[in-house]
Backbone:
C-alpha cells in the first residue's frame, strides 16, 4: 500500500512540475512573440492590415490571453499540442517527423557512454592507483570540463577531416536512417555518438569508480570473500549491484536533460533532428512547436526521475521506498 | 571542533616540549595543503594567465596594430577570401573569416568568458546561499514554497528554456548573464538548505537564540561562516560550467551577439571553416578547454584541501615518498622504543 501511495504522490507532483514549466513557457512566449509578427509570418509581407487581423483571429490570437491559455490547456489534456504556425501541421506530426534522428542519436550515444563509462569505472576501481586509473582520472576531468560543441568540432577536425581524405569512407555526412542498412546508419551517427559519449562517459566513470570503491570496503563484501566466492562473483553479483544505484539515478537525470545536449550535437554535425527543429522554430517565432518540445522534454525529465525512484528498490534491496 | 580533534590536541599538548604552539585557522590549513598540490597550483597559474590575457587584450591590440573589430581584407585573407594561417603577415595565430586578428579576438573573448563566469557565479552564490539559508532556517510554509521553487527550476529542460528565453528577449550580454544565473542558483540553494537544516539543531545556535539574537543574525553571523567552505568549492566548480554555458549559447547564436568577440561565437563561425583553417577551431577551443579545465582542477583541489581524508591521486609523488618514509621510520621506531 505504501508503494502505491508513494507512486501516486510522485505522479501527482510530476504533473504539477509539468504544469508549472508549461505555463511559464506559455506566458513567456505569448508575451514575447507579438501576434502581428506571427500573422505577418503567415500572410506575407504585402498583406493588408485586414488580412493580418483575419489571420490572427483565425489562429485565436486576438482573444484575451487567459482564454487562449484555457484553450491551450484543454487541448493539452487531450494530447493535442496545437498546430505549427510555420509548417501548418499539427505539432505532434512535426515532432514525429523529426524524432527518429534524435532517437538514433540518443540510443547509440547512451549505449556507448554507458559501456565505456562503466567499463573504465570498474577497471579503475578494481585497480585503484594504477597507471590506468591515473590516466582515466585525468581523462575524466578533461571530459567533464569540455563543452559538448567543442568536443564535436575537435572530432570533425581531428578525426573526420583526415579520414575523409583517405579511402576510408565509413564515416560520412550523407543522411542515413536505420532503413539504409546498419553500416550507413552508424557511419552517419558515429561522430555524434562519440561526442555524447566523451562528454557523458566521464561523469559515469567518476561515479561508478567512486561508488564501487566505497562498496568494496563494506563488511558484506568481506563476508562474500570469506565464503570463498570467486573475485568475479563478488564483484559482479555483490558489489556492482549496490554500487550501481547512484549510476542509475544519474542516468535518470541525464536522460531527462539529454535533449539539451542532443540539440548542441545536432547543431554541430547538422543532423536534422528535434533539437535542430526546435532551434529553427525559436528563430521563426513558431510558438506551438517550441511549447511542444518543452512539454515533451519536461515530460521526459519527470518520467525518468519516476523510473529511477522505482528502480532503486529493485537494484538495492536495502532501500525501502516509503 | 569534533571530539577526536580535541583529544588529538590534548594528546599533542601532553607530549609537546614546552614551547608556544601557534594556532592555525581552518583557512590557513587549507591554504597550506593547497599550496602543496601541484595540479591546483598549476591550475591557479593557468587561471592567472587567462586573467592577465584578458587584462592585456587592448594592449596587444595596439601593440600588433590589429584592433579587435577591424578586418584586414587582402592582408588577412588569401586569394580565395579564406583566413590566413598562423604567422602570416604578422598575424600570430592567423585570422578569422573576415581577416581579423584571431589572437586579439581570443584575448577579448577571455574578457567575456571570465566576466560572465565570475559574475554569474557570484550572483548564483549570493542568491542560492540566501534562499537556502532562509528556506532551511525558517522551515514550515516558507521552506515548502522555496523548496518546490528550487525543484521546478532544477527540472526545467535547461538548454531549451535558456534558448527560448534568449531568443525571445533578444541576444545580449545582460540576457546571457541573467539566464545563466537563473539556472545556477538552485543547486547551491539546495545544498545550503540541507546543511542549514542540520546546523540549526546545534547547541550553539540554541545558545544564540536563548540570548535573544534575531533570526537574521543567527543565519548570517552564526550559521553562514560554517558553510563558507562548501560554498567556496561549489562556486569554483560553477565557474567552468557558466563559462561553458556562455560559450554554448554564443555558439548557438543566442549568446553574446557579433561583432563582440566571445569564444563561443568565434567557434560558431569556425564550424564552417574547419576544412580550410584548422587554427580557427584549434586556438579558441584550446583557450576554452584550458580555462574550464583549470577551474575544475582548482575546485577539486580546494575540496581535497578542505577534507584531509580525501585521497589525493594528483598529490606530488615527492610528498608521498616522504610520507611513506616517515611511516616506515615510525613503524621501525615503535618496537625499538618498547624493547
Residues:
Amino acid at each position: 500500500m505504501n508503494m502505491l501511495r508513494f507512486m501516486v504522490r510522485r505522479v501527482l507532483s510530476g504533473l504539477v512540475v509539468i504544469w508549472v514549466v508549461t505555463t511559464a513557457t506559455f506566458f513567456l512566449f505569448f508575451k514575447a512573440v507579438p501576434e502581428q509578427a506571427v500573422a505577418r509570418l503567415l500572410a506575407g509581407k504585402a498583406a493588408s492590415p485586414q488580412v493580418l487581423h483575419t489571420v490572427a483571429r483565425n489562429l485565436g490570437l486576438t482573444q484575451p490571453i487567459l482564454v487562449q491559455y484555457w484553450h491551450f490547456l484543454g487541448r493539452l489534456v487531450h494530447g493535442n499540442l496545437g498546430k505549427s504556425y510555420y509548417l501548418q501541421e499539427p505539432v505532434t506530426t512535426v515532432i514525429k517527423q523529426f524524432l527518429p534522428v534524435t532517437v538514433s542519436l540518443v540510443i547509440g550515444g547512451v549505449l556507448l557512454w554507458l559501456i565505456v563509462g562503466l567499463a573504465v569505472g570498474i577497471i579503475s576501481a578494481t585497480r585503484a592507483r594504477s597507471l590506468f586509473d591515473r590516466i582515466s582520472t585525468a581523462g575524466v576531468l578533461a571530459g567533464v570540463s569540455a563543452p559538448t560543441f567543442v568536443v564535436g568540432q575537435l572530432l570533425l577536425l581531428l578525426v573526420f577531416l583526415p579520414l575523409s581524405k583517405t579511402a576510408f569512407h565509413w564515416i560520412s555526412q550523407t543522411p542515413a536512417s536505420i532503413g539504409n542498412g546498419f553500416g550507413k546508419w552508424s557511419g552517419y551517427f558515429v561522430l555524434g555518438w562519440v561526442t555524447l559519449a566523451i562528454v557523458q562517459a566521464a561523469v559515469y566513470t567518476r561515479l561508478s569508480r567512486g561508488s564501487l570503491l566505497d562498496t568494496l570496503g563494506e563488511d558484506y563484501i568481506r563476508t562474500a570473500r570469506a565464503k570463498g566466492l570467486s573475485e568475479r562473483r563478488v564483484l559482479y553479483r555483490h558489489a556492482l549491484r549496490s554500487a550501481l544505484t547512484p549510476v542509475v539515478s544519474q542516468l535518470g537525470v541525464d536522460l531527462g536533460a539529454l535533449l539539451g545536449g542532443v540539440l548542441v550535437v545536432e547543431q554541430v554535425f547538422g543532423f536534422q533532428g528535434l533539437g535542430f527543429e526546435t532551434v529553427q522554430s525559436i528563430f521563426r517565432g513558431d510558438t506551438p512547436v517550441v511549447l511542444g518540445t518543452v512539454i515533451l522534454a519536461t515530460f521526459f525529465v519527470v518520467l525518468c526521475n519516476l523510473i529511477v525512484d522505482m528502480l532503486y528498490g529493485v537494484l538495492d534491496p536495502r532501500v525501502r521506498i516509503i | 571542533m569534533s571530539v577526536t580533534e580535541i583529544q588529538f590536541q590534548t594528546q599533542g599538548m601532553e607530549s609537546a616540549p614546552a614551547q608556544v604552539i601557534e594556532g592555525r585557522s581552518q583557512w590557513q590549513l587549507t591554504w597550506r595543503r593547497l599550496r602543496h598540490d601541484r595540479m591546483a597550483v598549476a591550475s591557479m597559474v593557468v587561471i592567472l594567465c587567462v586573467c592577465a590575457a584578458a587584462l592585456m587584450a587592448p594592449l596587444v591590440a595596439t601593440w600588433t596594430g590589429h584592433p579587435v573589430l577591424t578586418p584586414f581584407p587582402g592582408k588577412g585573407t588569401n586569394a580565395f577570401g579564406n583566413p590566413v594561417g598562423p604567422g602570416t603577415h604578422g598575424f600570430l595565430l592567423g585570422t578569422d573569416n573576415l581577416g581579423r586578428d584571431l589572437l586579439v579576438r581570443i584575448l577579448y573573448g577571455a574578457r567575456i568568458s571570465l566576466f560572465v563566469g565570475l559574475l554569474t557565479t557570484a550572483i548564483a552564490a549570493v542568491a542560492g546561499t540566501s534562499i537556502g539559508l532562509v528556506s532551511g532556517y525558517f522551515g514550515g510554509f516558507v521552506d515548502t514554497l522555496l523548496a518546490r521553487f528550487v525543484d521546478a527550476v532544477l527540472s526545467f529542460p535547461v538548454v531549451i528554456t535558456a534558448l527560448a528565453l534568449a531568443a525571445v528577449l533578444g541576444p545580449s550580454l545582460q540576457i546571457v548573464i541573467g539566464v545563466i544565473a537563473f539556472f545556477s542558483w538552485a543547486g547551491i540553494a539546495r545544498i545550503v538548505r540541507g546543511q542549514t537544516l542540520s546546523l540549526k539543531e546545534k547547541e550553539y545556535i540554541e545558545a544564540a537564540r536563548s540570548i535573544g539574537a534575531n533570526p537574521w543574525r543567527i543565519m548570517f553571523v552564526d550559521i553562514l561562516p560554517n558553510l563558507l567552505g562548501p560554498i567556496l568549492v561549489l562556486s569554483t566548480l560553477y565557474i567552468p560550467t557558466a563559462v561553458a554555458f556562455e560559450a554554448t549559447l554564443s555558439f548557438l547564436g543566442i549568446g553574446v551577439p557579433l561583432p563582440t568577440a566571445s569564444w563561443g561565437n568565434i567557434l560558431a563561425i569556425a564550424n564552417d571553416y574547419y576544412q580550410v583553417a584548422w587554427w580557427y577551431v584549434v586556438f579558441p577551443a584550446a583557450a576554452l578547454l584550458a580555462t574550464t579545465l583549470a577551474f575544475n582542477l582548482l575546485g577539486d583541489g580546494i575540496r581535497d584541501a578542505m577534507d584531509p581524508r580525501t585521497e589525493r591521486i594528483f598529490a606530488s609523488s615527492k610528498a608521498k615518498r616522504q610520507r611513506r618514509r616517515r611511516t616506515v621510520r615510525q613503524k621501525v621506531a615503535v618496537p625499538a622504543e618498547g624493547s
In short: Confidence is low (pLDDT under 50) at residues 310-321, 328-339 of chain B. Residues 25-313 of chain B form a domain with the MetI-like fold fold (CATH 1.10.3720.10). Chain B has one domain: 25-313.
